[in-house]
Amino acid sequence: MSSPTRAPDPRPARTRAAIYTAARELSSADGEVTVNALTRRAGISRAAFYSHFSGLDELIGQMLHDMFQTVWEEGAAMHRGVASPHERVRSATAVVVAYVEQHRTFLLGALDWKFSHRTFLALIEMISVRHRHAFDALGEGLPSEVDRMVASDAFAGSQLSLIIRWLDRSEHVVAGGGEPDAAALLESTLRCWPTWYTGLQPGDDFDARGLLEAAHRVLAEQREQAQG
Amino acid sequence: MSSPTRAPDPRPARTRAAIYTAARELSSADGEVTVNALTRRAGISRAAFYSHFSGLDELIGQMLHDMFQTVWEEGAAMHRGVASPHERVRSATAVVVAYVEQHRTFLLGALDWKFSHRTFLALIEMISVRHRHAFDALGEGLPSEVDRMVASDAFAGSQLSLIIRWLDRSEHVVAGGGEPDAAALLESTLRCWPTWYTGLQPGDDFDARGLLEAAHRVLAEQREQAQG
Fold this sequence. Notes:
Two copies of one chain form a homodimer. By secondary structure, the first copy, chain A, is mostly helical. The first copy, chain A, has two domains: 9-53, Arc Repressor Mutant, subunit A, CATH 1.10.10; 56-227. Chain A has helices at residues 11-28, 35-42, 46-52, 56-79, 85-102, 104-110, 117-138, 148-175, 182-191, 195-198, 208-227; one strand at residues 114-116. In chain A, α4 (56-79) runs parallel beside α7 (117-138) and α5 runs antiparallel to α7. Chains A and B meet through β1, α7 and α8 of A and β1, α7 and α8 of B. β1 of chain A pairs antiparallel with β1 of chain B.
């Protein structure tokens, strides 16, 4: 019987962290991510890997889930004191883009992982849920003809395809000595959604770069807090 | 030296067809799709498989490419005599949905294949290109502030996520003895796009079921022609 006062066994958490680190490193280093390569790099046995994850599918699903969890919590921090639901949609989207920019190399590597579209569907669902929360915050601002489930899936799908396309193009930009333009990704994403969601009119001026910088500051503060 | 009068060697085409059939059967039968399972089912060697495809990624990419090619050609047949670009957008979308409904079991199985998101990106691009053609057909009807590349990627992403979600839900519907409602998928897809693209106003009545039936008739005619 385990005593309630005993500290939790730190080993599973350490193994998990080692697997995550190995996956990030392999992914960023252009190495093929396989269970063998992961266990070699993490210095653990295959059995240890499989005691944590049923396979690569579950691992990437869990990593993306954790990343999104972090993004949304950090997004929530940015929202504090922001009054309008439209501003909250814009700043939450900016935090996602800032996060994608920060983890560009890992996410680009993850595009080469082979995983099933069940995992993709889980990712769509994670993003969809957040859009539905944002719809709820809109209250009367949500047009009555909008089907919440359909619109949230559609918004999640367009957001993901723009992110994936941006990641793919960024590789060529970097290879050509350039700097991938994340502000353009933020602006595109917001502009592909309707005015009732973002509050942006087609011709409106909109400072995507300023908003993205604010999002990066929020992420940096959160990192400092987490480390301090 | 090959003689110009000799008929082309039919074997590669036959091997390819056998691989496609095996992939469709495995996918529909809920079997795991691996190179081993495919070659066993198709009655070919691994070497023969790899002389056609670099791996499962390329196979699924090619199969989806061929399916989309067929869909768009069949869509084009439905367009003949259809005057307005808006009507063409609606009928092309209906043909895609009809095709998805017809190949539901295979596509549902394909969700479980493990493939990299490079393949997903290629799929997005295939769909994006068609949206850009439709934008061009709109002429002055395309709002000047719309970025063609961004909008086409966003529309492709929302369309794909709605299709994938519909496929996933259809499994539960069928398990419960129901019939998956493809007309609802068609209506959702069109309603998630702006009025300038589909010509549909939010409150408009719209006969999704009738349009879908017309699309099924076009697909059936094309099949008859292909077989006769």
